[in-house]
Amino acid sequence: MSPILFISLLVVYLYTVVSSISVILLENRNSVRSLSWIMVLVFLPFIGVFLYLVIGQNYRKQKIISKKSVRHNTPAPATELHPEDYSDFVTHSNHLNLIRLLHKNSDAAAYAYNKIEVLSDGTNTFRAMFEAMEAAKSHIHIEFFIFEDDRISNELRKLLIRKAQSGVRVRMIYDYLGSFGLTRNYLKSLREAGVYVRPFLPLRLRLRRSKINFRNHRKILIVDGKYGFTGGLNFADRYLFGNTLGKWRDTFIRMEGAAVHGLQSQFLTDWYFVERKLITDPKYYPTPEKCKENVVQVVSSGPDTDWESIMQGFARAIISADKYVYMHTPYFVPNDVILNAVISAALSGTDVRLMIPERSDSRLSDACTFSYMGEILEAGVKVYLYTKGFLHSKAIVSDDFISIVGSANLDERSFNQNFEANAFIYDKDTAMTLKQLFIADIRNCRELSFADWNNRKRRQKIKESFARLFSPII
After folding, report:
1. Which residues have a Cβ under 8 Å from the Cβ of 115 and sit 6 or more positions away?
2. pTM, rounded to two decimals
3. Is 30 left (phi over 0), alpha (psi -120 to 50) or beta?
4. Of 11-25, 78-92, 278-292, which has the strongest mean pLDDT?
């Protein structure tokens, strides 16, 4: 390489590093996250620049998908509660404040009179979804992070083809990376049958504007605008038959009533992003039956929202719990807000319990998770390690009234980088069901004591502490 070329490349490289650091500083991000990226840029020559350009840029202010702009151009479902009516259904001030927070930070409408069924294993979840889709007469809207090209996903493919050919309008969104294993033949057979299939953020060879790090992690199914499903499960055989980690335990909910309109609104917003077609036909919001007296909000978050809305909802629910808060999550890599909420709740006397898998599908995440165990155990949090397979459930329940079920984990990726959707449910029966499931799951766990955590090998401690350095960016 000639000296002139070398100097030219070096100047370009240094310019890129300096300009990237300038952008990071001007964005006024979380200081720990900013410092992590600056260290990556400085101490990992060339690799650091590549990583930042691919996965480190902040697109929140650019509104990759602006739910508010879409909603402003579509009529709101008549079933949405007006803010002044919240107190007719929810009386506790902490619960009212949570509803108001989620309405302001994510434009999450509140819907009353819903029927909610909790589904806690793959067999019953898939059965319920397939039964609903088999009975579809108008439309099927389905959006999942992962569709594997396996037995259960091929059963789904055959069903969607059959329904599309019978005249049902079928729309399907799959995450491009999450469902990377889908074959051309799988997708081609759907399209040829009349299924409208669209990928979410397919890869583009535009390094400077890369959005590869922002994935659609949502799991949503709506049938005829009357039945809705959401939770943490994906379309994969491991929820039925297991894998090297064992059988996967997850939580899903089936909804009827006005709250289905919240799921429908979220799906059609995402459809506008992938198809650039605004759908406003009122047939997608049929008049719902009035079921039980409760309230549900469907809350979305990601690089498209003004605020870290689901994370703020989690923190508010945890810190305002009076009696208890029980949490399922496969990945516990909290930011300072969630960590302090968990610790503060436990120190104030709230019964705080956290259930995580003994071993997950990510060694780096496991190491990060265990680096946080000491401080929450010391604060009085009870930690349970799930040993009967892999706990993939993302559910929070508190005070026999607040239930949160959806796609978001208690980690930085879900708070900032993934497009997520969670149902916040204000209902005693649902909360009692989730509470009982949590208690039943304890039988398949071993409790982690502070002594056990503190006595682990020094090599393991160093590994966990090193992994934690990367927690703001993984």
Report:
1. 255, 256, 257, 291, 292
2. 0.88
3. beta
4. 278-292
pLDDT at position 468 is: 77
Burial 167-200 (b: 16+ CB within 10 A, else e): ebbbbbbbbbbbbeebeeebbebbeebbbbbbbb
Q: Name, in order, each residue with C-beta under 8 angstroms of 370's C-beta and a sequence gap of 6 or more.
A: 453, 460, 464
Active site residues: 217, 219, 224, 392, 394, 399
| Tokens 């964005």 belong to residue | 27
Residue-wise pLDDT for 214-259, tens only, equals 899 999 999 999 999 999 999 999 999 999 999 999 999 999 999 9
C-alpha–C-alpha distance, residues 25 and 357, integer Å: 36
Torsion sign (Cα): 218, 249, 314, 210: negative
The partner residues of 404 in beta bridges, in order of sequence, read 396, 424
CA distance 350 to 345: 5
Taking only the tens place, the pLDDT of each residue in 300-332 is 998 878 899 999 999 999 999 999 999 999 999
Number of residues written out for the chain: 474
